[in-house]
Amino acid sequence: MLLLVVQFFMLSIFTDANPLDIACSNTSYAPNSPFESSLKLLLESIATNTSQGFYNLSIGDDPNRVFGRALCRGDVNRTVCQNCLENARHEILKNCKTAEEAIIWYELCQIQYSYRKFLVMVYAGQYAEKWNNQWKSVSNPARFIEVLTYLMTNLSIEASSDPAMFAVGEVKFPKRKTIYGLVQCTRDINSRDCNDCLTGALGDLKACCGAREAGIIVNENCNLRFQLSLFYNASTRIALTYPTSTDEKRSQRGLLHELAGPISVSLTQEGDLVSSEELPFVHLAVIKAATDGFSDSNKLGQGGFGTVYKGVLPNGKEVAVKRLSRKSWQGLEEFKNEIILIAKLQHRNLVRLVGCGIEGEEKLLIYELMPNRSLDCFIFDSERRLQLNWNTCYNIIGGISKGLLYLHEDSRLKIIHRDLKPSNVLLDKDMVAKISDFGMARIFCENQKTANTRRVVGTYGYMAPEYAMEGLFSVKSDVFSFGVIVLEIISGKRNSGFYLTGHAQTLLAYVWQLWKEGKEMEFVDPLLMKSSSIPQVVRCIHIGLLCVQEDPAVRPTMSNVVALLGSESIALSEPRQPPFPVGRTIVLAEQPSTKDPSVCHDLTVSTLSPR
Ligand SMILES: *[C@@H]1O[C@H](CO)[C@@H](O)[C@H](O)[C@H]1NC(C)=O
Ligand SMILES: *[C@@H]1O[C@H](CO)[C@@H](O)[C@H](O)[C@H]1NC(C)=O
Ligand SMILES: *[C@@H]1O[C@H](CO)[C@@H](O)[C@H](O)[C@H]1NC(C)=O
Ligand SMILES: *[C@@H]1O[C@H](CO)[C@@H](O)[C@H](O)[C@H]1NC(C)=O
Ligand SMILES: *[C@@H]1O[C@H](CO)[C@@H](O)[C@H](O)[C@H]1NC(C)=O
Ligand SMILES: *[C@@H]1O[C@H](CO)[C@@H](O)[C@H](O)[C@H]1NC(C)=O
Ligand SMILES: *[C@@H]1O[C@H](CO)[C@@H](O)[C@H](O)[C@H]1NC(C)=O
């Protein structure tokens, strides 16, 4: 009997009725209200009108106005599109009963509705985990990911400038295999946002699925997929040939000797390059030689915006070189942002930029090398985690809090990081935490408290609710992310993709449940228990909970946090229930995946800068 049930479940996972993923808000509309009528009308209209493959509309007047958006995969015909949407509109109502906002993804179509205008979700990934987990690993992951990146980067750029915002293509992979890829954006965003969205999604695709035979990342504004078999039907597809590496090394070494010492440049606030003492500018040829021609064996990791290589400068200094993806608009913006910000900042808990290079399309950032890589490589890795003890964890928490305090209050500028997460916390040889990746950071004016953006960038799981839902960010949204990290360090579990049979569905819900019952020590990773000071651990859980409060005004500032960590005699206020996730994600998997989706498993992917 049980077997039958399981089998049935397996077979039915990806049939029409089973979407790749669903997210429903838990804010509700009243049943039989005018809002509900608008919504039903909208969903009906979507299913019948999406003849061009994309449809965007709103129905009704405030407060009963509903915004809707639907997208079919670019290679399906009208009939297939309509069938998919017809099914999707029933499923979204069934699964997200009375939710004011919801989104449903299928392989061939997606529908989203909301009571408010859509934000441009430049990047916030959704994994479609169950679908991704069904695929086998490939045998040559390092090479595979390189070829895959080559294909998907080309397709992303092509789709961004295509009126249909869709591209499919293929590239040969050694041993008679072919990688097929597909990328698509919703047509209500511009070309730049499309490329940004896809670039971010590609970082996540590599992290979740870069070493598998197939993978899919779905998002509100874009999605992308690849597979080792043909899965699309399009007459215009791009056929790529991966260039074989030419032997440039010798000439690079020769050039190196001809080049004089580095000249210095920095950027003005407007982003123009000017000569200065602050930041050495290093010639491309020097960087190429230092990284052995950006060789695979020197690769430390890769993310949405570029690949990171280990290098040795002519003076013997070991560095990490971030090579931003070519032609990426985001790349250029990020590059300037990072240079402007980080070149001016110096703190023990911030990673140091030691140089940069620009030549033609190459944009390079040179950092001090962090031999112990990033925090997520330790806390989410069952083996490396063994090397941590409570003291190290406590120092890391303290280090992050001080780095963040410096950004928020002590530096010459007031800076909101906006994408704080364990993969952006690097560890030096002594396991001192250093915050990195300022590509998304924003400078605030002295009296500015919050800012609003229609371009939400960040990572689900670490984004404060007011930021993820309304695009509002402030120092307090960074505090929220900090709180999540503290709780992840203590428990060794990720906030996103958290599963624990019979327990709450998110890490925040889980910690809250235990806290209420006075069982907070059950939250602590048993590996840390041996070495911990119990009052200190409880205090850290308490501080973590205060940081993830729903109301930003109730969250402490980073100076409060540093003070609270520094003195055990300062009383802590009682936390209230933290917000549970922005959208309720229905987990399609019956079983938790045992394989940690961490990007630190193989050499192929890692984490100096993924988003
Ligand atoms: C949303 O979910 C949280 C946690 O489950 C709950 O406390 C809150 O009341 C919910 N909000 C609404 C409007 O249902
Ligand atoms: C959409 O479909 C409805 C019928 O469901 C029709 O009345 C309406 O005119 C259509 N709208 C557009 C913009 O085609
Ligand atoms: C649409 O595509 C489906 C499946 O590929 C096919 O069966 C159907 O005949 C096509 N319909 C039209 C009108 O081309
Ligand atoms: C993608 O690849 C095709 C085929 O090689 C090429 O023509 C096109 O210029 C490439 N696009 C980009 C943006 O590199
Ligand atoms: C999408 O719909 C919204 C609401 O009706 C509208 O404001 C916006 O201009 C539309 N965008 C496009 C590209 O059609
Ligand atoms: C593939 O697309 C072509 C052109 O759009 C169509 O004629 C054909 O029926 C499609 N085949 C399948 C199997 O969907
Ligand atoms: C951190 O890196 C240093 C230098 O590479 C190494 O000696 C040390 O063992 C590492 N620490 C951990 C906990 O891995």
Can you walk me through this structure?
Mean pLDDT is 79; it is low at 1-15, 245-249, 251-277, 499-503 and 582-611. This protein folds into four domains: 2-114, Killer Toxin P4, Chain A; 126-242, Gnk2 domain, C-X8-C-X2-C motif (Killer Toxin P4, Chain A, 2-Layer Sandwich), CATH 3.30.430; 251-368, Phosphorylase Kinase, domain 1; 376-588, Transferase(Phosphotransferase) domain 1 (Transferase(Phosphotransferase), domain 1, Orthogonal Bundle), CATH 1.10.510.10. Helices cover 34% and strands 20% of the residues. The strands form nine sheets. It has a six-stranded antiparallel β-sheet. Strands 9-10-8-7-11 form a five-stranded mixed β-sheet, covered by helices on one side. It contains 17 helices and 28 strands. It is an alpha+beta fold and 611 residues long. Helix 11 (390-410) runs antiparallel to helix 13 and helix 11 packs antiparallel against helix 17. It starts with a helix and ends in a 26-residue tail after the last strand. Bound molecules: 2-acetamido-2-deoxy-beta-D-glucopyranose (7 copies). One 2-acetamido-2-deoxy-beta-D-glucopyranose is lined by residues 56-58, 67, 188.
